[in-house]
Amino acid sequence: MNTPITALVVDNDPGFTDLAASMLEREDEALRIETAVSADAALEAIREPGTGVDCIVSDYEMPGMSGLDLLEAVRETDPDLPFILFTGKGSEEIASEAIAAGVTQYLQKKPGRDRYTLLANQIKNAVSQYRTELELRESERRYERTLAALHETTRDLMRASTKEEIYTAAVETAGEVLESPIVAIYAFDPADGALTHAASTASSSELLDPEVRFERGEGLVWEVFSEGEAAYYEDTRRAANVHNPETLSRSELIVPLGTHGVFVAGAEVVDGFDETMTELMHILAANTEAALDRAEREQLLREHDRTLTQQNEELTRLNHTNEIVRKINRAVAQASTRQEIESAVCERLAETDRYLFAWIATTETSRANGTEPTPSDWAGIDPTYIDSVREDGPDAPEAVLIRRTVDERTAQLVPNVLDDHGWKSRRKEALTFGFQTVLSVPLVDNEHSYGALVVHAPPADAFTAGERAVLTELGETIGHAIHSVERTRSLLTDNRLELELACRDSRLLLNRLSKHVDAELTLEGAIDREDGSVVFFVSVADPPVETLCALADRWASVETISVVSEGEETTLFEITGCPTAFVDVLRENDAQLRSATAANGSATLVLDVPQRVNARSVIEAIRDEYPETDLHAKRETTTQSARRLDAQLRERVTGRQYEALQAAHYSGFFDWPRESTGEDLAAALDVSPPTYHYHLRAAERKLVSMVFDSDSN
After folding, report:
1. Could you give the CA distance from residue 327 to residue 324 in angstroms, rounded to a whole number?
2. Is the Cβ–Cβ distance between 355 and 457 less than 8 Å?
3. Nearest 5°: phi and psi at 350?
4. How confident is the model at residue 142 (pLDDT cuts 50, 70, 90)?
5. Nearest 10 degrees: CA dihedral of 537, 538, 542, 548?
């Protein structure tokens, strides 16, 4: 489960704060949204003990105190608390003022769920960075306290830096102090679960076998270690658990070294250790254990120090990358065409010291013409490199990298092209231009793929995990921006393509249905519902109603089949089914199904495709799922006003209201006499009749308002 994040949304419009809270919590279950309708209320909330606000999302223009005034007041309480300015004011002046004031992020309000997806990601990234910095500072403070205490307590201990040095110094000291012929230390190996020889005196080398190890339960040495209590054996040959009855040690003093192992001293005579020697042995063992503890702690601290250094370096890189991304986001927000977006991205990345150059490859042509991804824009690199990529075609290592990026929709990293066999053909270019690491990031929005962004960096393994995550998010931002400008362009053009297809594939639902009725089926309309299901309205002349309705119990792809209305010539059926590959293809390409008829297992389909979408890519995508599909005709049509009206209507109504309006239209609800009733449609959409009528009336009111209000476009 993700760590919960509490964000405070500040806006003088209560309706907007409630909407923002709902949308953000829907985007990520880790988000907990609090709201405030004024800057004063926000300040009270963050100053109240126990509130635990991790991030503030504030409007710019509010009565009394603006968003930037609120930022200044918040900085007096917490200079580093993430603060995102989420405003409908989108001028460059306001953006510059916000950045100069020190906002963490600046985001312009726009309609659509994508804006809240981006806002949720910005909140999570800002809080993640904020928490990382807090943890880093706290780790540094803990490290300094631990290091000071360590120096104070170990000042008079032996200065050996490793356990091996400690072992050697300890046995040499014991040999000198105790004048014992046999002195050794056996260290515990947690991996093997045994005690192994670590060090011994020179005089012991002829008497001890260094290969001897004590497994669990073996000998006096293991017995003392396991019990954790020192033991003195006056005559080892009389001991019950002696490891070697023929041992040369007639008496042994064994002292545990905590979890590190045991200290062993042996004498060749019975009762060879007096009380003084035993006490010295215990003191030496205690100092040895303390030294081993110190060495172990220092080793851990050194590793921790390396970790902190790595974290510092990664944080510096991440801050640099975030600054680059902020500049790119500002440039992308001002771009009005795809080419402007791609140029801005490549130029901003190439002008930094962190990266050498960047380029973008589009993959849309590969779906249409069978060609490989091709560079469409670049910056910071000699064009001869781009020419090499194009000339090598599908065999280019860059093409392979981009295909994998697009197919898997994940960032792909080449840590070092000089060591990668697949990049052998690029070794000369890498040495000439000075790059070793290559990162490819997919350019995607929720459904579409627009290619990949490729970034080259000088050192090997130059991209940290955090950096890759930020650049991956940038790829999504670019994908959404491209989709937005392409969709806007399609709404402003009169030209669209009408494709007439013949499909005989048995997987197509209409074809399967047509085989069970001795009449032609006509698709009156389809509703792609928010819950993922699809509702089809199909009219049939003189159908076997019972036979058709019974298919819902026999087919897994159909949930319900019911009669909506019975006319003099045709009967209208409502069919609810699971999402189909055909609907997915239409959704991914912004295409619409204008009409569909089917008879005897063969269907005629008429699609309305935006001019920006390659018709062949749509046809091939359909053939991938339904191979027995042929193109019968391709025509240009003009649908500008309808497209604009549809787009405006989608922005004004909710998903439920749009579904209600679609269902009424497709089912003949607006005809006279009516071919269906509100109760029929409520049942088809699985809602109560009052709820259905409420959504329908709301949609009708908004549609009429669009047509007759003076401020309508």
Report:
1. 5
2. yes
3. -70, -25
4. low
5. -90
What is the fold, at CATH topology level, of the domain defined by 163-299?
Beta-Lactamase (3.30.450)
* Number of Cβ atoms within 10 Å of the Cβ of 254: 24
Length of the chain: 713
**Which pLDDT band, with edges at 50, 70 and 90, does 56 fall under?**
very high
Contact 354, 503 (CB under 8 A): no
pTM of the model: 0.40
The CATH code belonging to domain 1-153 is 3.40.50.2300
Query: Rounded to a whole number, what is the distance in angstroms from the first to the last CA of the chain?
Result: 46
**Residue appearing with tokens 């500040």:** 10
35 neighbors 17 (Cβ within 8 angstroms): yes
CATH 3.30.450.40 intervals, the chain? 163-299
Can you tell me whether residue 572 is helix, strand or coil? strand
Please check whether residue 243 is in contact with residue 214, taking contact to mean a CB–CB distance below 8 angstroms.
yes
In Å, the largest CA–CA distance within the chain is 119
Residues facing residue 637 across a β-bridge: 496
> From its phi and psi, is residue 37 left (phi > 0), alpha (psi between -120 and 50) or beta?
alpha
Name the E strands within 570-612.
571-577, 592-599, 602-610
CA distance 311 to 455: 23
Q: Which amino acid is at 211?
A: E
- Range(s) within the chain of domains with CATH label 3.40.50.2300: 1-153
